[in-house]
Automatic annotation (TrEMBL):
Stated name of the protein: Uncharacterized protein
One Gene Ontology biological process: DNA recombination
Any one GO molecular function term: DNA binding
CDD domains: DNA_BRE_C
Keyword field contains S-adenosyl-L-methionine: no
Keywords (A to Z) from UniProt: DNA recombination
InterPro entries hit by this protein: DNA_brk_join_enz (IPR011010), Integrase-like_cat_sf (IPR013762)
Keyword Metal-binding tagged: no
Length: 966
């Protein structure tokens, strides 16, 4: 969308992107001509069909001059940019042409082969001299060291890094370098500033620390380029000057040959804009309280079909604005904490006022996309669209439905004509994914496909996933089956890397357990009656799960073995898609936000699954027995050689990785994710790059004592290095004096880092991550099952938490859960009872209802016919007692028969009126029998509809217990 936005800067960005790679590109006038041709076709998606491309080329070939050649080359330039930078899907023949472009890039790199080899050997010889002599830091040498030890970036990026002392960060116990994306010429005005992370070696980190401590002057690209030329022109390098692109090609050749980086990954580490990192958030300050509320219904739901959108009558965000109006910004946070700690209640018929409140709250607390603090006028400007939103209500149910939500957003967006107004709407719509109920909103449909794609980066570890599963199954709120389905949704989203809709639509027939391995499952992701896959293609996903997690999945499959194959795996039989999203996906989102940060969404489970799938594949390709990264215990267990092989066994089929075509790895991973191209996986799901370079043996020669002294910041001849080695190296303590003098510490950079973080210089580095979550995978496969059952109740009568005098009917007791395991038809019968008795609404029996039940007198239960019967006098009081007890959701699963035993000597009209008014409805059966003698009585028979003896027995027990607790 954004049809009125100017896109003149796109051509500049295309030329600039080619220039940075040293690739040829046509002039701006030819590039702009092609962009105008593409932009003539209205589009909201990022794709081009073969017919559209042929039409563009046909238009160009009508030009009867040599300009045609330039324009056809410009088409290649533009499409290459759209594919690489804007995530466009292009016709397959055009993608094959990109191999020629990549080949041209590789040829430019290979031209530097001789000098790159000489440069690498000279660097290895000079580095020991540097750490021993310790000359003043030279930006030319620093750029050289960073390009060889960190990544072969363009000097443009290194100039920016050397101007930013805060670029060194400690991320998950790893030394990293933050590299900001260079602002593209073509971008949406509200697109956030992205950055990525690279892994720092200890040497490069110490080099940067010393450089920044010297408080250097700002440098420019020209200054850095000149310094590098000068530095490498002397001994021991003796290299001729080069332009910026040629130096990068030279360093890329080192990474290609010396470190054995594949071409695709070499391009990834060479261009920071190809991946986006994220800042981990800390848990909610009151997460222990919030996690207890994840199953609470924060909406009023008499019935789903009654959710009709209504206009907002009250806008609570105005109270926020009024509260800060006359206060200095330094007091705003205190005001939020003291006066607005509890958000306003959410209205089920229109959630927009509630969303606007959260939007305003975040603007006050965190500022805008670029400014960390906003002026009051700016906050008013960003929120003033609430006047127009009054006419566009959004109900809770519509917000849960992806298509309905997108239609609502499109209608709102199209209401505005001016770019300035659409800019404000776009900014508000971008906030919707931060709200649990609208987290599935897709903002990409509201930005031009010709602009670089946006991404919402985040990744969870397997440890965090396990902690979340335990939180989901162990809450005392939420029914047992709801908690089990929520945990299943999380498992499928994380380990299967499924989209939100794919999790919701997965049917019983779409998941098959491996008969030989209980930890493995095959998922069929395909079109169902409820919707299709994003790319309209069927795919198979192969899972290998930890034993305790696999046990939960097998329980769900086993419980639903008697259901129709087309029944959704999550939820009860015939439960609507909306209901399943509300009750099995929304609590997962709430749990993720409570535990890992408010920006975390359900879709980030897919991001995480894709990230770890890629790491598993790369470890197989690189023949690593375990991950070298500092990971939590559960994540490290997922990355063992055995688990990696098990995950890819569908492809390997028992063969070693060396016996398959390793060049297909990215395609195999893409097939698992439903991606046609690696570019989609890389940009949208593989966040940061600090995890990649440690997988390759960049420095496996160990650390000599001279380098250790440099890293520790002690003198070149200091014997304090012995104290350090004695503390961390047992073999050093046992060595002879002569052996100690020539000792080399054989640790990797990641193994050495924890010891360095205790030393001067390193220990001052700021950590951007909370304490790493690390939990062991349960040894007992029944661990999660036992945890789930431990929070299920044996009792069918529970005290309601909201009304102490009321009793809640806990029909999902442990006894019923055991019946699901033994009775094939039990789940279908339970589903029938659930559907008839209020669905997810709790069944409450108040004190007044229990007293009314007692007033109705004794009841007879017939366990053969599943009926209960009792006899009362036909009067108003008994009619009121009957209504109070039996017009409860619990008894919607019953049929009522009324038999009036009428004495023929009394008038019948009065009794008919009483029955019609207080007892029977038009769905009930009423019969009248005349008596010659005896008093008039009303016999009532309640017939239990579901064919489930256990549920009827539980109903009997519940009513009897209610009578005892009156």
């Amino acid at each position: 969308m954004l049809e009125n936005m100017t896109l003149k800067s796109v051509s500049d960005e295309i030329i600039n992107s080619h220039s940075q790679q040293g690739l040829a590109c046509e002039n701006k006038e030819f590039i702009q001509y092609v962009i105008d041709l593409i932009n003539k076709t209205p589009r909201s998606d990022r794709s081009m069909t073969k017919a559209e491309l042929q039409s563009i080329k046909k238009t160009i070939t009508t030009i009867p001059t040599g300009k045609q050649r330039h324009l056809l080359r410009a088409v290649d330039n533009v499409l290459f940019y759209l594919h690489q930078h804007c995530a466009w899907q292009l016709p397959e023949p055009e993608l094959k042409r990109f191999h020629d472009t990549q080949l041209a890039w590789m040829q430019l790199i290979s031209l530097q082969a001789h000098d790159a080899s000489a440069l690498y050997q000279a660097y290895q010889k000079y580095k020991p001299i540097f750490v021993q002599d310790r000359p003043e830091p030279n930006i030319g040498f620093i750029a050289l060291a960073l390009s060889i030890e960190v990544a072969p970036l363009s000097l443009r990026y290194w100039a920016e890094v050397l101007n930013e002392p805060a670029s060194i960060e400690l991320f998950d116990n790893q030394l990293t370098l933050v590299v900001q994306h260079q602002t593209p010429a073509a971008r949406h005005p509200q697109q956030p500033s992205y950055f990525t992370r690279y892994a720092l070696t200890p040497f490069s980190c110490r080099l940067l620390i010393n450089y920044f401590n010297s408080e250097p002057d700002k440098i420019t690209l020209k200054t850095l380029h000149h310094a590098l030329d000068q530095w490498l022109s002397r001994a021991p390098f003796y290299l001729a000057s080069r332009n910026v692109a040629q130096w990068q090609h030279c360093f890329q050749q080192i990474w290609l040959v010396q470190y054995q980086f594949p071409c695709a990954l070499l391009l990834d580490i060479s261009q920071p804009h190809r991946h986006v990192a994220f800042v981990p958030q800390r848990p909610h300050p009151q997460y222990e309280q919030h996690i207890k509320q994840i199953y609470d219904q924060d909406w009023v739901a008499p019935a789903y079909h009654t959710f009709a959108a209504k206009k907002v009558e009250r806008w609570p965000h105005l109270a926020l604005i009024n509260a800060i109006k006359n206060k200095p910004s330094s007091q705003w946070q205190h005001l939020l904490n003291t006066h607005f700690s509890t958000p306003p209640p959410r209205s089920h018929d229109n959630i927009i006022a509630n969303v606007m409140y959260y939007f305003t709250y975040d603007l006050i607390q965190f500022g805008g996309v670029r400014a960390t603090s906003l002026q009051l006028d700016s906050i008013r400007k960003y929120t003033r669209i609430y006047h127009q939103l009054k006419d566009y209500p959004l109900s809770y149910i519509e917000a849960c439905d992806h298509e309905a939500l997108m239609d609502w957003a499109t209608e709102v967006y199209d209401h505005f004509d001016k770019d300035s107004e659409r800019w404000l709407v776009y900014n508000f719509l971008r906030f919707l994914p931060q709200v649990p109920v609208t987290e599935h909103f897709d903002i990409s449909q509201f930005s031009s496909p010709l602009l670089s794609a946006t991404v919402d980066p985040f990744c969870l570890s397997a440890d965090q996933c396990l902690v979340t599963i335990e939180a989901l199954v162990s809450q005392s709120t939420g029914s047992p089956l709801q908690r089990l389905f929520c945990a299943t949704a999380l498992i499928l989203g994380f380990y299967g890397a499924l989209r939100r809709g794919e999790v919701s639509r997965l049917r019983c027939q779409d998941i098959i357990g491996d008969v030989d391995n209980p930890h493995k499952f095959t998922l069929c992701i395909c079109k169902t009656a409820e919707g299709n896959t994003k790319n309209k293609q069927k795919r198979f996903v192969y899972l290998s799960l930890p034993a305790a997690i696999a046990k939960l999945i097998r329980i769900v499959i086993h419980n639903k073995r008697g259901c129709l194959p087309t029944t959704p795996l999550l939820g009860f039989n015939n439960e609507s898609m909306t209901s399943r999203q509300l009750h099995y996906l929304l609590p997962v989102t709430k749990a993720l936000k409570s535990l890992w940060g408010t920006n975390v969404r359900f879709h980030h489970l897919r991001h995480s699954g894709a990230h770890w799938l890629m790491q598993q594949g790369l470890q197989l390709a690189l023949a690593l027995t375990q991950s070298p990264l500092p990971l939590g215990k559960a994540t490290a267990a997922m990355l063992t050689e055995h688990r990696c092989r098990e995950r890819f066994d569908f492809w390997l089929e028992g063969r070693p990785f060396s016996h398959v075509n390793g060049g297909l790895l990215f395609d195999v991973i893409g097939d698992q994710l439903g991606h046609s191209h690696y570019a989609t996986t890389r940009w949208s799901y593989l966040h940061g790059i600090e995890w990649l370079t440690p997988l390759f043996s960049i420095n496996d020669n160990g650390y000599k004592q001279s380098e250790l002294r440099y890293l520790l910041g002690i003198g070149p001849l200091s014997n304090d290095v012995s104290r350090f080695l004695n503390a961390i190296a047992p073999d050093y303590r046992q060595a002879t004096t002569h052996q100690k003098q020539n000792y080399t510490l054989m640790l990797t950079a990641l193994e050495l880092t924890p010891h360095l973080l205790k030393k001067k210089g390193f220990k001052q580095l700021k950590s951007v991550t909370p304490q790493q979550t690390s939990v062991s995978e349960p040894n007992n496969e029944n661990h999660l099952l036992s945890l789930w059952l431990a929070h299920c109740n044996d009792d069918i009568v529970l005290t309601d938490s909201q009304q102490p005098t009321a009793r809640r009917y806990n029909y999902q007791s442990k006894e019923l859960l055991r019946s699901l395991n033994t009775d094939k038809q039990a789940f279908s019968a339970l589903s029938e009872f659930w559907a008839l008795s209020g669905r997810h609404q709790p069944i409450i029996f108040t004190k007044q209802q229990r007293q009314a039940l007692q007033q109705l007198g004794p009841m007879d239960f017939d366990f053969d016919t599943h009926t209960l019967s009792f006899t009362v006098r036909c009067n108003k009081d008994n009619g009121i007692y009957f209504q109070r007890v039996f017009r409860n959701p619990l008894f919607k699963c019953c049929q009522f028969d009324f038999a009036l035993q009428h004495n023929r000597k009394t008038r019948i009209n009065k009794n008919k009126v009483l029955i019609d008014k207080y007892f029977a409805t038009n769905k009930d059966t009423v019969s009248i029998h005349k008596l010659n003698t005896g008093s008039t009585q009303l016999n009532i028979t309640v017939r239990f509809i579901p064919q489930a003896p256990l549920l009827f027995q539980m109903l009997h027990d519940f009513l009897n217990a209610s009578l005892r607790n009156t």
